[in-house]
Amino acid sequence: MSGFQQGRIDLGARLRQLRENAQLSGKDLAALLGWQASKVSRIENARQSATEDDVVVWCQAVFAGPEVVDELLSRAIALLERQDSWRQRHKSGLAALQEDVRDLESRTKLFRVFEPGVVIGLLQTAEYARHIFTKVRRVYGADDDVDAAIQVRMRRQEILYDQARRFRFLLPEAVLRYRLAPDDVMRGQLDRLLAVTTLPNVEFGVIPFTAQLPSALLNGFWIYNDSMVGVATRTKDLVLRDPEDVAFYASAFEDLCDVAVFGDQAREVIVRVLVAFAKQSAL
């Protein structure tokens, strides 16, 4: 077992102890915090990471003392800032991973996302997601909960229709053409992207093949507000909070936007790829 997962188990057990000492059931605590009851269970059983906010409100609900709050906050922050092992995280289950991400997204007002190899999760259709999760399960040996993970991912997408939030998404044209799913699924995914580009709070950009790139397209990254960057590699999930790191990725994002196309031009690229898929299918 990784140190990360053991730390999550220890934090969950400590929080459970506080809840039980306060003579609250999981449902009671969830009701007090305005959470789904399943979230309390996931945190206590180390299937979801407790965030700083989660720890604070949990401790307030059980009337924990300041020293206890400081101790548990330190644990939570240490876990969130670790270079997390993707193999260990995936073994906790695909759906649990999606719940972790959904919780983070609920606290974000401005999203800046660049993905060089896959359609961004918030924009995926259910069938495209199924093929992605199936590949992830094979590579990382994740729990066999693809259907549950898809359900959570689809619920995550409800946030796109919250006009109080702003989304800036960026993909290279190659992502539209990568056959990570059968052609009919890819056509459905491209139709979905066309629809998303019309949302007033969504800025969707495509870096065309003809663009002169400002740098090599390496890892994808997600910038949450102006406070945190998530960078996923094949074996580590980096969580960066240093202001200089955040500023670096924000600048890199703008450099990529400078060579991307948006609006009608982005839709033209998508339609061009759709036509290419249709021709291929007709052969």
Please explain how this structure is put together.
The chain has two domains: 80 residues, Orthogonal Bundle (434 Repressor (Amino-terminal Domain)); 197 residues, Endonuclease Chain A (Endonuclease, Chain A, 2-Layer Sandwich), CATH 3.30.870. It contains 13 helices and eight strands. It has an eight-stranded mixed beta sheet with strand order 1-7-6-5-2-3-4-8, with helices on both faces. Helix 4 packs antiparallel against helix 5 and helix 7 runs parallel beside helix 9. The radius of gyration is 20 Å and the shape is elongated.
SSE blueprint and pairings:
Elements (H helix, E strand, L loop, with lengths): L2 H19 L4 H8 L3 H8 L7 H10 L4 H16 L2 E2 H6 L2 H12 L4 E5 L11 H15 L5 H11 L9 E7 H5 L5 H14 L5 E6 L13 E4 L3 E5 L3 E5 L2 H16 L2 E2 H20 L1
Parallel strand pairs: 2-3, 3-4
Antiparallel strand pairs: 1-7, 2-5, 4-8, 5-6, 6-7
Helix pairs in contact: 1-5, 2-3, 4-5, 7-9, 8-9, 11-13
Q: Which features characterize this protein?
A:
Endonuclease, Chain A; 434 Repressor (Amino-terminal Domain); 2 domains; 283 residues; elongated; alpha+beta
